[in-house]
Amino acid sequence: MSTKGFYKEFEVFSKRTHTAPMQYQFSLLAPNKEIALVMAQENFMRREPAVDIWVVQRGDIRKMSQEERQSLQRIDNKDYRNTKGYGYLKKKWRHYEQGMLDEQEIMSWGGKKKG
């Protein structure tokens, strides 16, 4: 019996708590999805708690083509949605603080000079 093509590649995802997002964990080789799930469970039971495990055959995962990825680029300028535009405020605040009155200036108003 030939072992070529006997094992399939599976990707394993898990969820630590009921409210946590599903996260990618690792890949494994198994003859079918049932054995892949058992192998994933055995791996997780020794390492960390999990409330849910997904096992997906790698061949069933569809990724975007280069043309499809280009469609994700922004068509119009929406930089105003990014908070990086507020970086100038730190410099502006520093300039404002430097222009504030210091103790020596305030004391000079009373005609008394400090020490």
Give structural notes:
The chain has 115 residues and is an alpha+beta fold. It has a domain at 8-61: Ubiquitin-like (UB roll), CATH 3.10.20. Helix content is 33%, strand content 19%. The chain has 4 helices and 3 strands, in the order ββαβααα. The chain has a 3-stranded antiparallel β-sheet with strand order 2-1-3, covered by helices on one side. The N and C termini lie far apart (99 Å). The model has no long low-confidence stretch (mean pLDDT 82).
Helix content: 25-40%
Largest beta sheet: what is the strand line-up?
2-1-3
**N-to-C order of helices and strands:** EEHEHHH
Radius of gyration: 30 Å
User: Helix segment count?
Assistant: 4
CATH topology name of the domain at 8-61: Ubiquitin-like (UB roll)
Per CATH, which architecture of the domain at 8-61?
A: Roll
- State the shape: elongated
Q: State the name of the first-level CATH class of the domain at 8-61.
A: Alpha Beta
What is the CA–CA distance across the termini? 99 Å
Question: Could you name the ranges where pLDDT drops below 50 across 5 or more consecutive residues?
Answer: none
Oligomer classification: single chain
Number of separate strands = 3
Strand content: 15-25%
Classification by helices and strands: alpha+beta
Average pLDDT score: 82
Largest sheet: 3 strands, antiparallel
InterPro entries: PaaB (IPR009359), PaaB_sf (IPR038693)
Protein name: 1,2-phenylacetyl-CoA epoxidase subunit B
Q: Topology, please?
A:
Layout: E1 8-15, E2 23-30, H1 33-47, E3 52-57, H2 66-70, H3 88-98, H4 103-109
Antiparallel strand pairs: 1-2, 1-3
